Amino acid sequence: MGVINVTPDSFWEGSRARAEAVTDIAADMIAAGAAILDIGGESTRPGAAYLSPDAELERVAPAIEALRSRWDIALSVDTRKSVVARAAIAAGADIVNDVAALEDDPAMAPLCAASGVPVVLMHKKGVPKTMQDEPYYDDCPAEVFSYLATAARRAIAAGIKAENIILDPGIGFGKRLDDNLALLARLDELCGGGYPVLVGLSRKSFIGSITGRDPAGRMAGSLAAACAALAKGASIFRVHDVAQTVDALRVFQACAGKPEPDWERRA
Predict the structure, then answer these.
(1) Catalytically active residues, by annotation
(2) Which residues, in sequence order, are bridge partners of residue 121?
């Protein structure tokens, strides 16, 4: 899943896409092996403020329209607002990637159910603006995995098909370094629960905490983390560096003596 941030304030400057550059970025990601493009108009980095639906829509809708007019690749909209999700689906989005696991907006679950689109349910603690203000868990993996199991049941009760549910442990969203590492160490528990698991590890601050590098210097750490997550059973990788991640995962699989991953896409 290639990340396309049509935002001026995402945590890594290199991931911010100007509107006129969206199709060029998408073309490179598709050529490199992306199976999904994830378009987001609101930064949810630690400390980020809430963005109005109108402002988010102004960024997201034209980007999705431009991509859908050129490619038949799966498009995901990264939003926690039903107004934005509805417009994005109308513009051609196939997946709703909700960092709030359908909880922030009561209209989101009914919309996804009626639209029949796959949904990504992510765990976060609190809201982006304050989620890194001393988060605490007694047992982070147990609490996160329990939350996601409940979120999946809640989605099914709202009419979303079980086969349309994807879970994301929310690495970096209201977690300390040790919490993130514990989640990755026990990710196989979540991956064994019957739902595909998405991980967003690319260039995140926990990698900087380990390596001492800023976001621009975290590619190697991101690739190592992606391989670790693959070994635990993750099946979708939300990344900034598509070509490098595809290569790393292919080589890791080959060295592990496993069949080559299926990188087929609709494009």
Answers:
(1) 204, 238
(2) 98, 167
